[in-house]
Design goal:
This protein is mainly α. Helices cover 38% and strands 3% of the residues. A hairpin with a 4-residue loop joins strand 3 and strand 4. It starts with 35 loop residues before the first helix and ends with a helix.
Length: 244
């Protein structure tokens, strides 16, 4: 049954079920996924080939920063960004031209919007540099440059096969149950939120009113604001005269 108005007369039929089957077991237009297991195996093989090709470097490629996506809908999440900013590299004491050569992605266009986000990425860079091992380009003594790791420390080095090189920290936001305190029982969350919304709504009007009051006091110094009754001094004097 349709709703109010000029609609098409309902004429539903249920012949086209289960992918246009024309017989009991003959499903003509149904799409199958019989190669799912084969594709899974192919992806695993490609990951292994890529890791072998990049060895001994990390299989994930370059180190990426931790960023928050834009807009209110997604900014509570943390994901990997394109590259570290020049300010983050400077705070971690890493030259911007050296960074791409040691596996650190650089993005000169991104800007730091918060001190906490910048500090998290600086700590990420420092942790990476503390675990970094740099292999010499060749096998001879002449190939060893300043900053390269000693050959004695490069024996049987395991390759980093993690997806993010340094995993994204997952803070535990769960809270253990506890008893409600007396102060929390006396407070009302609805009233607190309502007052906060009211203060924000009339903030501009309050500033305007205070500004007008100060200007009036400066223009008329004899008229002075007194007492809790929100009365001016001359109004109190007049009220006293009329009372007598």
């Amino acid at each position: 049954m349709t709703g109010k108005g000029n609609h098409v007369i309902p004429n539903v039929h249920f012949r086209k079920v289960n992918g246009m089957q024309s017989g009991r077991n003959n499903r003509v237009m149904m799409r199958t996924w019989l190669n799912q297991a084969g594709r899974k195996q192919r992806r695993a093989m490609n990951r292994k080939k890529k890791a072998a090709r990049l060895a001994p470097r990390p299989a994930a490629g370059l180190l990426r920063p931790l960023v928050r996506p834009p807009t209110q809908r997604y900014n509570m999440k943390v994901r990997l960004g394109r590259g570290f900013t020049l300010e983050e590299l400077k705070a971690a004491k890493i030259p911007k031209k050296l960074a791409p050569t040691i596996g650190i992605a650089v993005d000169h266009r991104r800007k730091n919007r918060s001190v906490e986000g910048m500090q998290a990425n600086v700590d990420r860079l420092k942790l990476y540099m503390s675990k970094l091992l740099i292999f010499p380009k060749g096998h001879g003594k002449k190939c060893v440059k300043q900053g390269d790791t000693a050959r004695s420390e490069l024996q049987n080095v395991a390759q980093n096969t993690l997806k993010e090189i340094i995993p994204i920290p997952k803070p535990d936001v769960r809270m253990k149950p506890r008893a409600i305190t007396e102060a929390e029982k006396e407070q009302s969350a609805v009233r607190i939120l309502r007052k906060a919304r009211t203060d924000v709504k009339f903030f501009g009007e309050k500033l305007k009113k205070n500004k007008a009051t100060k200007e009036e006091e400066l223009s008329n110094p004899e008229r002075r604001y007194v007492g809790r009754r929100h009365m001016w001094q001359d109004e109190i004097f007049l009220a006293g005269v009329f009372a007598t």
